[in-house]
Amino acid sequence: MTYQPGSEQQQHGPLEGLEQWEEFVKVRYPEEGAPVEAAAKLPEAFRDYRAEARPSVKEFYRLNHANQSLDFVLAKKREYLPLRKRRMSIWTAMEFLNTLVDDSDPDTDLSQIEHLLQTAEAIRRDGHPRWFILTGLIHDLGKILCLFGEPQWAVVGDTFPVGCAYSDRVVFPEYFASNPDAAVAEYQSPCGIYSETCGLEQVHLSWGHDEYLYQVVKHYLPEEALYMVRYHSFYAAHKEAAYGHLMSEHDREMFHWVRGFNPYDLYSKGEDRPDVPALTPFYRELIDEFFPAELAW
Ligand SMILES: [Fe+2]
Ligand SMILES: [Fe+2]
Question: Residue 6 domain-assigned?
């Protein structure tokens, strides 16, 4: 799909918008201490997230788990990681992402730029360092994969390792039965094609916006920020402690930062619309402090 400035781009997939996946994750992992609805008052282990998920979300996970095979991930890495799609600044990428049109209500729902600013502003309010604020601002820019024509299930969704056994701590694990890798014996041992404690750098996760953006920004941000970008959707690991056997000691230390970032990602999206023109000078200066005028995407 070629991008026409100002054109409306529809998303391919069952979700009305990418936010539907994030709303589901928020139900699955409610904020500690937050007021919960009656249905959510049961201990977390007894809550049936399947019953709470909308049909569109279930269909989204069915497609994601059925299609994210090792071969698919390797093919997407070959396609995207030479980073030859376009050259643009971080700010232009934000404006580009903003052209993504959801089926949800544009009058009440926040735009993509407003979402990014909300995350960054929540981090800024808590007095975190400038690189952390910047990470909040950019962490979802990989979602421009949608604008390159990728289906929703290849852009968002909780990520998981491919080429080794699936953990039942990944949501809707039953849908993995229709993944072609489920029939490959070599991939179904706990380590599969990897070795114990090899480190996540060696491990291929399901393809999506985390890995893509990590590859775009990896030369410009501190390592803590890069872990946040690369693994923020790896809920089975950072929320459920699955796949520890593939992680190195260093991964374990760095995941402290991934967990520290997660509340800003999930729970900073309030009703207040950020004042985009008023915030623009601060964020343009912050972007220029870390990034060159153009990056390869
Ligand atoms: Fe994300
Ligand atoms: Fe996010």
Answer: no
Pick left, alpha or beta for residue 33 (phi over 0 → left; psi -120 to 50 → alpha; otherwise beta): left
Span from the CA of 266 to the centroid of ligand 2 (angstroms): 7
Ligand nearest to the CA of 266: 2
- Specify the amino acid at residue 108: T
Ligand 2 centroid from CA 183, angstroms? 33
253 within domain boundaries: yes
Domain count, the chain: 1
Taking the CA of 209 as reference, the closest ligand is: 1
The pLDDT of residue 111 is above 70: yes
Residue 159 C-alpha to ligand 2 middle, in angstroms? 13
Ligand 2 is an ion; residues with CB less than 5 A from it: 140, 265
1 lies in some domain = no
- Does residue 181 sit within a domain? yes
Read off the pLDDT of residues 208-222 as tens digits, 9 standing for 90 and up.
Answer: 999 999 999 999 999
Q: What is the pLDDT of residue 88?
A: 98
Task: Tell me how long the chain is.
Answer: 297
pLDDT in tens, 59-110: 999 999 999 999 999 999 999 999 999 999 999 999 999 998 766 655 667 8
Task: Measure the CA dihedral 61/201/258/212, to 10°.
Answer: -60
The pTM (predicted TM-score) of the whole model is 0.91
Cα(64)–Cα(166) distance, integer angstroms: 13
Distance CA 145, CA 253 (A): 30
Structural domain of residue 155, as residue ranges? 19-296
Residue 9: band (very low, low, confident or very high) from pLDDT cuts 50, 70, 90: low
